[in-house]
Records
---
Amino acid sequence: MPHPTRRIFLQTSLTAMAAITGLPHFSRSSMGGEISSAPPKPSFPVADYHVHLSEHLSIDQAVALGKERGIQVGILEHPGPGYPINTDADLKRYIDGLRPFPVRIGLQPVYPGWSKAFSKPLLDQLDYILMDALTMPKPDGGWLAIWQIDTMVDDAEEFMTRYLAFIEQVLTTEPIDIFGWPTFLPVPIARQYSELWTHARMQRIVDLARARKIAIEINEVAHVPDETFITRAKQAGLKFTFGTDSRTPQSAMHFYYCYQMAQKCGLTAADMFVVNKK
Ligand SMILES: [Zn+2]
């Protein structure tokens, strides 16, 4: 299908963001360069629940990489317009195609209301659902993809109000097990992370996730959420997952930020969300 993948946007926007903002946490080592003092792999079983298969990453490669690195693999695909899974038949083919492999099978919906396109028994066959709040409905219709480099934010406070409302929608009305890319901010306001993510706003996400036992993804590519959020979520009893959001063998099952946060925030096996095979 000749549409640009999210990954292309991600790479463009994150590389550009690192160049523009000079964010200290976008270190070369974590962007694929040489790692001099990598944080240790945690002692608990590690999973990468955010792996996308692609022309560069086959299921066999993903399984082999997982085995090599001692990491459980979770595969995601997007349903909805512009993506490969739109009908029950598509979804069944996807699930049946992955079942023979020792991976967890997930779905990463993009648009609210996505689950209405599929029958409940089929959705129940999925091992998990991860959704982010990166594709925001615009007030005048259409969608704002906030991971894109050219995302414009005229008024940071107004944006945060709309963003929080959309996060609330995602966390309260959709079938969801893991909240992906939590607290990610678009490029123009990324440097204001600590001011914009006030105590109250962070707490709102923590409370919503706790109410439905939704796990929090620590996202390797976006380096979110930050240590403050993770610590607060941990204190509230939330569980976490690690995700590379990868489509290549170079990035799949390759953690730096996640291990660093695990170390800094003292995450243990008890803090991790485990996806079971159905
Ligand atoms: Zn993804």
---
Amino acid sequence: MQYGLENIRNVVFLSHSGAGKTSLSEIILFDTAAISRLGRVDDGSTTSDYDPDEIRRKISINLKMLPCVWKETRVNIIDTPGYSDFVGEVRAAVRVSEGAVIVVCAASGVEVGTEQVWDYAEEAKLPRLFFVNKMDRENASFFRTVEQIQAKFGAKCVPLQLPVGSQSDFQGIVDLLAMKAYTGTQAKEAEIPASMQEQVKSFREKLVEAVAEIDDKLIEKYLGGEELTLEELTSGLRQAVVSGRVVPILVGSALQNIGIASLLDSLLSYLPRPKEHEVLVLGSDKKTVEKVAPSEEPPLAALVFKTSADPYVGKLTYFRVYMGVIESNSHVWNTTRGGAERIGQLYILRGKTQETVQQLRAGDIGAVAKLNLTVTGDTLGSKDKPMVIVPISFPEPIFNKAVYPRTKADLDKLGTALARIVEEDPTLRMHRDPDTAETILSGIGETHVDVAAERMLRKFGVNVEMKIPKVPYKETITASAKAEHKHKKQTGGHGQYGHVLLELESLPRGSGCEFVEKVVGGSIPRNYIPAVEKGVVEGMKEGVLAGYPVVDIRVAVYDGSFHPVDSSEICFKIAGEQALKKGLAQGNPVLLEPIMNIKVRVPDNFTGDILSDLNTKRARVHGMNPENGYNVIEAEAPLAEVQRYAIDLKSITQGKGSYTLGFSHYEEAPPHITQRIIAERQAEKAEKAEKA
Ligand SMILES: Nc1nc2c(ncn2[C@@H]2O[C@H](COP(=O)(O)OP(=O)(O)OP(=O)(O)O)[C@@H](O)[C@H]2O)c(=O)[nH]1
Ligand SMILES: [Mg+2]
């Protein structure tokens, strides 16, 4: 069987942590005979959560490809982690899917993470459906969960199914379109229970109305009092789901294997085929985005959405084919980087198992080992007709930890191990902080960074200690300034001469730095301008207040002078750097601190404690939304105050709260904080000087 644009579904499973995505994937693989032994998350035996870190923590950490075949269609399930630290994996998975299943736990209902993944799906305009899972659990309630879903995401979310029974008595589902009940693990067709007739009728009414509304012909027929046929309803619902106007709500239990066949049928019936999903490619200017109809004809265009590092097999590259066909043992062109790549054996991955394939066609997802220059986000294509697929946008890592190798041996291996770990995960970065001489590993949250450290130990044998690092303050100016520096030395032989006049201007927050050249009449010869810029750029690495990097300024070099013999690039670099420092000092410099958006969800009765704690953290509360006994508090707070919020929240709420943290912007730090930081930095410097 060849799978391509018509007979594939790429479906991402999304949810708040623990709603049951991995269990659901596992039972689907089992029911479709892709695996013969059913694993369990709690035993660490699922196909998806095979990584030792995942087994130990009983959560998913990496996205996993879990393909199966249902009714002659390849369903490429992508299981994602629900834990918010691993959002990078979720982003990548969302990007290469045409449809999403949002799993909601019938007992916990809509959670912070549910809202977050809804937003990702919304942003990507992914047609989606809800699966209300764990109907067998104590406290499960389908109707309460539906109410929450509708309250949060709108009336376009409508039940397509109703549960038969609930909690320990959960037996099956009623399909409101087909008007059939299916019970038990074999999804046996059964009578709709008499006690449910009224309920079924009223929910069917709502569903039919929602479907009819999207099509003039259907609504006419419906309002005329005519019954819509099952065919009309099914194709109407498909159209409604694909266009995002209806989000059907399904129900079941992954652990009890109930509702699974209907879920699979719905994926095939209502979620789009790759054929219907326009491909986003970069225009020739590399900026504008063009939409192209997908095709299995050349040229090839495949997007790399994940890279995993393995100490033994090396690098494994995951890609999604959008255009054309990719062949095993062939040559392709990395159109993002402009370089040739040799493709060896192609694979289809299912968890950790690899199945070799000869080719992969547009619409499909696979992997290849040992690519040379390709990294996540690149396009593999053809040299004659290069297409570049819009790269995936990953969230910026903001949670930083300083990495301290424990022994000399660890230190020696640290650089390589970090590089491999970072290559594997685009939401991890490493850099060396020039001020503190700390090696900083940045990620999305504490768990993310801790997992990375564990991985370094497990995969590369590097043992490190992770410490909370200093806050990445920045500096800027608040007033325009002009400054001049003449670097002049007349020693015995060859002298030194460079003379630069700069104009400094402050830019809006988030603009970064600009350098412009405004020299007229050749007072500084052209060939020295890059040297001036180098000096300026160098100077901006350390501001004049507390030595933090300078941002949001425009620096113009507008005048200067030179000496025909004594001038050199290094002299102009020094002059540029020194002039900048003078300008910064005159420009009313201020300290900027990173401000985070924080969204805290806690049971109502903790609201007071949370607010007073936030208050001590210099937070600004923007809003509070009570929902079903919970309160969602939205605020902004300086990073310096919330670097360890996870720990504080846990102790305030006994683990009942959850929160999300995202970088918002930089803001001027209040004077008392600025003074404290400056004093701390001076003390540090003095200490260093003493040691030296
Ligand atoms: N009772 C019941 N428990 C379930 C069901 N589905 C999953 N669970 C349990 O819920 C817990 C979490 O399930 P997972 O499948 O790991 O959930 P997940 O969404 O993959 O979690 P993350 O990967 O952390 O986001 C496990 O203990 C499962 O056994 C279900 O249908 N009924
Ligand atoms: Mg999981």
